[in-house]
């Protein structure tokens, strides 16, 4: 069966290594902090000015003054620090973030990403997305494999305005884990109960399959 948003976040959490500094984008990526193993030390950074972000608070324990870039209430781990946006983007532009996890509306087979605007719809601004994709060297995208109409979001070319060019390294969807290569999307794992044929049918871009494709282990 296909994964839900928590399942996607749980699988991405396995990509987070001990000692990493990690930026979590808006949407599914914010859930990743809930699933990181307790035996590793990770510093989660939010571009609005916090380093040491923890998991979401339990109901009734929210602090309205403590929010992430998506304006969701969060927790702060012991030793967390708070700072202005200039310092935050200095960390990002200075390449001090080891892993960036972002949501996306579309990803192209060459690693292009579109995640900030749909033409005709009003947006408040691009936020930090373009700084993140321009500066990060390790970008994992968390997204649904298809849109609500059942159309693929893993494309030959993005149709929406680009956020970054050739920057995505890996994608985790509700159906699969894929690596972006020079030849296209390389299928690494499939969601439990999801067949290779289902993934192929849901992927517009080139899909590379090498041998037996294992199921994800969450």
UniProtKB/TrEMBL annotation:
<keyword id="KW-0808">Transferase</keyword>
<dbReference type="Pfam" id="PF01144">
    <property type="entry name" value="CoA_trans"/>
</dbReference>
<dbReference type="InterPro" id="IPR037171">
    <property type="entry name" value="NagB/RpiA_transferase-like"/>
</dbReference>
<dbReference type="InterPro" id="IPR004165">
    <property type="entry name" value="CoA_trans_fam_I"/>
</dbReference>
<protein>
    <submittedName>
        <fullName>3-oxoacid CoA-transferase subunit B</fullName>
    </submittedName>
</protein>
<dbReference type="InterPro" id="IPR004164">
    <property type="entry name" value="CoA_transf_AS"/>
</dbReference>
<comment type="similarity">
    <text>Belongs to the 3-oxoacid CoA-transferase subunit B family.</text>
</comment>
<dbReference type="GO" id="GO:0008410">
    <property type="term" value="F:CoA-transferase activity"/>
</dbReference>
<dbReference type="InterPro" id="IPR012791">
    <property type="entry name" value="3-oxoacid_CoA-transf_B"/>
</dbReference>
